[in-house]
From TrEMBL:
This is TMM8A factor. It comes from Sitta europaea (Eurasian nuthatch). Residues 455-494 form the EGF-like domain. It is a multi-pass membrane protein. The chain crosses the membrane at residues 507-531, 592-611, 617-636, 652-673, 679-698. One of its GO terms (cellular component) is plasma membrane. Belongs to the TMEM8 family. The gene is Tmem8a. Disulfide bonds join 459-469, 484-493. Keywords: Cell membrane, Disulfide bond, EGF-like domain, Membrane, Transmembrane, Transmembrane helix.
Length: 732
C-alpha cells in the first residue's frame, strides 16, 4: 500500500475571554477521503509581559459542524438537542508556549472544526489604551496520512486479503448504495502463516467527534464471524480496518464478504410531482384550490405500492432564502400521510457545506381528526446520513453509525418541535410511522395526517427580545451566534437566571439619561458669565448623551430618535469637545485665539473619533494639549502680573480644587470601576461628576460685563443717544 502524508495549516488567532460564542476562535479543516490517521498539532502561546499570568485554554473538536459548547453552564432553549462536545484543556504556566498533539485513527472524511477560547470573561469594561491586555495566541495544524490505493470491497463478492503484521493493519472500503436497509459483514477462512489459531479484530466505520459509533468485531479461530448493521449511511464509502492480534511476525489471511439488504421505496407518481412543482413555481400552492389532485386509480396504486415497499418517500423542495437560511417545502402540501405499514420518509438536504452554522428546526402537527385510533401515536426520528426504517422496533432512533433525535405526536399531545443546533453537513432524514398498542386491532388500515414544517435559520427565534443574532465568519465559512443582553444568557438568550427585571431596566435607563440633566447648572453658570459658545457645547452634549443612552439600553426600555451609530458618534464628540472648550476657557486667552482653537480643535477631534471612537487618546490627547495651553497662559499671566495666577485664594479653595477633585474622581470611575453589572450607576456617576466639575472650573466673567449681559444683546429697539459734551458748552 502507498501512503501519502499531507499537511494543512491555518494562521494563528488571538484568543478572547468567553462571554458568548463569538469569543470562541474557530478553525475549519477538510479531511480527505481514505485518511487512516489524523494528527492535530495544537500550539498555544502567551506574551512575556508582567500582565501575563498562567491561563487555561479550552479546545473543542467536532466533525461535520462547529462544536456546540456551554462554558458558562447556561440553559439551552426548550426542545433543543445538545450533545456535549469533545474537549481538552491546555495550560500555559511558567512556559510561554505549549504544544499538544491529538491523534485520531480512521477519521471520518469531510469537515472538521476546532473551537478554542479562554475562561469566562470578568465583565470589567476596560478603556482602550489604559491597560495592555496579555495576548494569548492559538494555532491549529493538521497532518493526515492517506492511503492512495485502498482496496474496494465489492458487495456480494468474497475478497481474500492478507494482514502482513499487527503493526500494519489492513484497510478496505465498501460503497453503501442508496436505500440500503441493512448491511452484513462476514469474515471467514482466517489462516495464519504459523498455522496457529487466528485472532483478528475488525473495525467498521470511521471515528467522529464528539461521539464515535465505530463498530468492533473480534474473530478467533477459523470459524466464520459476522456483524449485521441496520441503516448504514447511504451513498458513502464505509471504511473497514482489519488488524491482527497474533504474534508480530505472523501474517493473517482472511476472506471478507459484504452484502446489503435494499429497501424498495414507494412514492407518488413522478409525473404528479413534476406537475406539482410546476404549479408551485407558477405561484400556486400545492394542495390549494385549483391544484391537481391524485386520481382514484393513482391513489389505489399508491396503497398497493405502500404495502409492497418498506418506506414511503415524500418529495421535498429545498428553498434557499439567505445565508444559513433554508425552507423545506413539501410538494404534496404540508400534510403527509403516515401509516403503520411502512415509514414515511422526507429528505432534508443539508450537504452544501454552508448549512452547518445555523439551527435546524422541525415541527410536527398532528391532525387529530385524521387518526381513527384513539391510543395511536405517530413516532418520528430525525437522523443524519441514513434514515431510521424500523420505528416500531427501535424507539431510540439509532442507525448503524449515528444516533438520531426522537419525536412523537398523539391525540393528547398533537404538536412536537425539535431544534438541532449546528447540524452536521450531511443528508438529513425525517422518518414517521404510526404506532398502535399491541392489543388494538385495525392498525394496518389506519392512517394519520401530520403537518411537517422544517427550516434552517441562523439563530432560533432570532435570539429573542434580549439577544442579537450575529453572523460570524472564519475565512469563507459563515456561522451565527447570539449575543445576549440585560442579564439574559444561553444559546438563544432564553436563560433568565441572571436577567434584569423590567423595573431594573427602567431604573437603568432613567439613571443614565436623567443624570445628564446635571449639565443644566453648568449651562446656567456659562450663560450667567456670558460664555455662550461653551453653553451651546454643553447643551449639545447633554442632548445627545441623553438620547444615546436611551437608545443604548439592552432591555425593553429603549428610545432611539435616530440611527444608533449617529447618536453614539455625537455623544462621544460632545463629551470630548466639552472638555476641550472648558480647559481653553480657563486659560483666559484672547477671544480671537480662543475661538480659532475652538473650531480647529473640534475639527481635529471629529476626525480622530471617526478613526477610532473608543481610543483613550481621543480624549486624553485634546485634554493634555488644552492643559498645556492653559498652563502656558497661566504662567504668562503670572509673570506679567508678578504674582501667582489665579491670584485669589478663594478661587483656588472654593472653585478650582473642588473642580479638579471632581474631574479626577470622574476619570477614576470611568477608567477603573465600570463593569457590565454596575455600568448603569457608575456611568451615571461619571455624568454627574463631569457636569459638576465643569460648573466649578468655569472662570468668572470679565469685570466689564454684567451678569446675564447676553440678554441685553437680544433686544432690538431704537435708542436716543445724548451728546453730553455739546450740552455742556451750549450758550443761551
Amino acid at each position: 500500500s502507498l501512503y501519502v502524508s499531507e499537511y494543512f495549516s491555518q494562521s494563528a488567532q488571538k484568543l478572547s475571554f468567553y462571554s458568548w460564542y463569538g469569543n470562541a476562535k474557530l478553525f475549519h479543516f477538510h479531511v480527505p477521503e481514505d485518511t487512516v490517521l489524523l494528527r492535530w498539532l495544537l500550539q498555544a502561546s502567551r506574551g512575556k509581559g508582567p500582565e501575563c499570568t498562567s491561563m487555561e485554554i479550552t479546545v473543542h473538536f467536532r466533525h461535520g459542524a462547529p462544536p456546540v459548547i456551554n462554558p458558562l453552564g447556561t440553559r439551552f432553549p426548550a426542545n433543543a438537542t445538545v450533545r456535549p462536545s469533545y474537549s481538552i484543556s491546555i495550560t500555559l504556566g511558567s512556559a510561554v508556549q505549549n504544544t499538544t498533539f491529538v491523534n485520531v485513527t480512521t477519521p471520518a472524511a469531510g469537515d472538521w472544526f476546532i473551537a478554542a477560547h479562554l475562561p469566562q470573561a470578568a465583565g470589567r469594561i476596560e478603556v482602550k489604551g489604559f491597560s495592555t491586555p496579555c495576548p494569548y495566541m492559538f494555532q491549529a495544524d493538521m497532518f493526515v496520512l492517506r492511503l492512495t490505493d485502498m482496496p474496494v470491497l465489492e458487495p456480494g463478492v468474497p475478497m481474500p486479503h492478507t494482514v502482513v503484521s499487527p503493526a500494519k493493519p489492513l484497510h478496505v472500503k465498501v460503497f453503501v448504495p442508496k436505500h440500503a436497509a441493512g448491511m452484513r459483514f462476514q469474515l471467514s477462512s482466517c489462516v495464519t502463516s504459523e498455522q496457529r489459531a487466528c485472532s483478528v479484530r475488525v473495525l467498521l466505520g470511521s471515528i467522529t467527534l464528539p461521539q464515535s459509533f465505530q463498530r468492533s468485531l473480534t474473530c478467533t479461530g477459523s470459524t466464520n464471524c459476522s456483524l449485521a448493521l441496520d441503516s448504514p449511511p447511504w451513498e458513502k464509502w464505509l471504511q473497514i480496518m482489519v488488524e491482527s492480534l497474533g504474534s508480530a511476525n505472523a501474517s493473517v489471511s482472511v476472506e471478507m464478504l459484504a452484502s446489503f439488504t435494499v429497501c424498495r421505496p414507494g412514492s407518488t407518481s413522478s409525473f404528479l410531482n413534476f406537475i406539482s412543482l410546476n404549479q408551485s413555481q407558477a405561484g400556486g400552492r400545492p394542495g390549494a384550490a385549483g391544484s391537481s389532485a391524485p386520481a382514484a386509480g393513482e391513489a389505489a396504486g399508491n396503497v398497493s405500492s405502500l404495502q409492497s415497499s418498506c418506506l414511503q418517500s415524500q418529495p421535498v423542495v429545498r428553498e434557499d432564502l439567505d445565508v444559513v437560511s433554508v425552507r423545506y417545502r413539501l410538494l404534496n402540501g404540508p400534510s403527509v400521510p403516515v401509516s403503520s405499514l411502512a415509514p414515511t420518509l422526507l429528505l432534508l438536504n443539508l450537504n452544501t457545506g454552508t448549512d452547518s452554522g445555523g439551527a435546524l428546526v422541525v415541527t410536527l402537527l398532528l391532525n387529530k381528526t385524521s387518526v381513527s385510533l384513539a391510543n395511536a401515536t405517530v413516532a418520528a426520528c430525525v437522523s443524519a446520513a441514513s434514515p431510521v426504517l424500523s420505528l416500531n422496533a427501535t424507539q431510540n432512533c439509532s442507525t448503524a453509525f449515528s444516533q438520531g433525535y426522537p419525536l412523537s405526536v398523539s391525540t393528547s399531545s398533537a404538536e412536537a418541535m425539535l431544534i438541532v443546533l449546528y447540524p452536521q453537513t450531511d443528508d438529513w432524514f425525517l422518518s414517521l410511522q404510526l404506532l398502535c398498542p399491541k392489543a388494538q386491532g385495525g392498525c394496518g388500515s389506519a392512517e394519520a395526517k401530520v403537518s411537517v414544517f422544517a427550516y434552517l435559520t441562523p439563530c432560533f427565534n432570532d435570539c429573542g427580545p434580549y439577544g442579537q443574532c450575529s453572523l460570524l465568519r472564519r475565512h469563507g465559512y459563515l456561522y451565527a451566534g447570539c449575543s445576549c443582553k440585560a442579564g439574559w444568557g444561553g444559546w438563544s438568550c432564553t436563560d433568565d437566571t441572571k436577567a434584569q427585571s423590567v423595573g431594573t431596566q427602567n431604573l437603568a435607563t432613567l439613571l443614565l439619561t436623567l443624570s445628564n440633566l446635571m449639565f443644566l447648572p453648568a449651562i446656567a453658570v456659562a450663560v450667567y458669565r456670558y460664555y455662550l459658545v461653551e453653553a451651546s457645547v454643553y447643551t449639545y452634549t447633554m442632548f445627545f448623551s441623553t438620547f444615546y443612552h436611551a437608545c443604548d439600553q439592552p432591555g425593553v426600555a429603549v428610545l432611539c430618535i435616530m440611527d444608533y451609530d449617529t447618536l453614539q458618534y455625537c455623544d462621544f464628540l460632545g463629551s470630548v469637545v466639552s472638555i476641550w472648550v472648558t480647559i481653553l476657557c480657563m486659560a483666559r486667552l484672547k477671544k480671537l485665539l480662543k475661538y480659532v482653537l475652538f473650531v480647529l480643535g473640534t475639527l481635529l477631534i471629529a476626525m480622530s473619533l471617526q478613526l477610532d471612537r473608543r481610543g483613550v487618546w481621543n480624549m486624553m490627547g485634546p485634554c493634555l494639549f488644552a492643559l498645556l495651553i492653559m498652563v502656558t497662559a497661566w504662567v504668562h499671566h503670572g509673570a506679567k502680573r508678578r504674582h501667582c495666577y489665579p491670584s485669589s485664594w478663594k478661587r483656588w479653595v472654593f472653585y478650582l480644587l473642588p473642580g479638579i477633585t471632581l474631574a479626577f474622581t470622574a476619570i477614576s470611575v470611568y477608567a477603573f470601576m465600570e463593569t457590565n453589572e454596575n455600568y448603569y450607576y457608575t456611568h451615571s456617576i461619571w455624568h454627574v461628576l463631569v457636569a459638576c466639575s465643569v460648573a466649578f472650573l468655569l472662570p468668572p466673567r470679565d469685570k466689564h460685563k454684567k451678569p446675564w449681559a447676553w440678554s441685553q444683546k437680544l433686544t432690538c429697539r431704537y435708542q436716543i443717544c445724548q451728546n453730553d459734551r455739546e450740552e455742556l458748552y451750549a450758550v443761551t
